[in-house]
Amino acid sequence: MIPIGISSGNSCPSTQPPHTLLAADIGGTKSNLALYKYDGSKLALTKEEKYPTKDFKGPDAIIKKFLGNEALPDRICLGVAGPVQEGKAKITNVPWEIDAEELSAQFEKHPVFIVNDLEANAYGLATLEQIDIHPLHTGKEQQGNIALLSPGTGLGEAGLFWDGTHYFPFATEGGHCDFSPITELDDDLLVYLRRKYGHVSWERVLSGPGIVNIFNFLKEERDMDAPGWLLDRMAVHDVAAEISENADTVAICVETMRIFFRYLATGAGNLALKMKATGGIYIGGGIVPKNIKKIDYGAFMKAFREKGRMKPLLEDIPVHIILNEKTALTGAAWYAINKC
């Protein structure tokens, strides 16, 4: 396990060790909630559910639905898709505003914590075993900061600062930085997306909706053929999932995912330089772990390390893929345990 640290604070009104915890991963599309029992050393999952986020008016409603007749947990921690400031957050892509104090008041003043969802993922690294991680590039074993990026409904990015003994997670909103083209195709894609969105961030290409954007660009601007049967399936199923599932046989899907993984490698390399992440890059989210076999290792590493004079630095940085889809939940639970 990775030694994770946590900043001290007096934000917790309880000094009693928790026995039950509610952890939530609140996303723009779906929300995952889990109940854990804690025996002082290990977490044990006792209940878990998934809900469409937009079916609820706010976090209080979704928590009450999840708990049902269950007793209130000792502590609650929400990992949310959006920036968190002083215990308050606005969820990206969902009209929710969350206040930890107000939420606590609705649950008998039990401690409630709110962290960014990628920050929760970063804390979750403390709970992972070797089986939960796929080493894409072993690199060189060395100390230093860690960086995390997770393409899903959006693109989350976080860092973990190495102080010599522990890693301290911190959130960023780096997924909303400007997309920067490298090739002529990238230039044309940028123009295409600018017409559609105005500002074009990395999230517009490195996410589930980003996969759809690349596919539509290839169909509309590069005249690549999209078979009728595929379009029929896209009309009733998740479009990004249909593209990735057919990326072995359908040319436009093959090219879409090739471009997506090149952007993933480029974005990971950029993040590694910004964070000087010599301790490694960790890639999470729901897309990449399901498509590991579609990654061309040679092409990925070429795009990852081609940063001019910084190429030697990047060649030594390990790249890992997080396989455990519950990392954000266990990270939120870990935070709730250790914050006080």
TrEMBL record:
EC number(s) per entry: 2.7.1.2
Asked whether the keyword Cytoplasm is assigned, the reply is yes
**Main subcellular localisation:** cytoplasm
Coiled-coil ranges per the record?
none
Record field: transmembrane: none
Catalytic activity reads:
D-glucose + ATP = D-glucose 6-phosphate + ADP + H(+)
GO BP field: glycolytic process
For this record, the Gene Ontology CC terms, alphabetical, are: cytoplasm
Q: Which GO terms describe its molecular function?
A: ATP binding; D-glucose binding; glucokinase activity
The record's CDD domains line, in alphabetical order, gives:
ASKHA_NBD_GLK
Name where it's found. Cytoplasm
Q: What Pfam families does the record point to?
A: Glucokinase
Which UniProt keyword terms apply here?
Answer: ATP-binding, Cytoplasm, Glycolysis, Kinase, Nucleotide-binding, Transferase
Q: In which residues is ATP bound?
A: A24, D25, I26, G27, G28, T29
Q: What InterPro entries would the database entry show?
A: ATPase_NBD, Glucokinase
Q: Which family does it belong to?
A: Belongs to the bacterial glucokinase family.
The protein depicted here goes by the name: Glucokinase
Q: What is the lineage of its organism?
A: Bacteria, Pseudomonadati, Bacteroidota, Chitinophagia, Chitinophagales
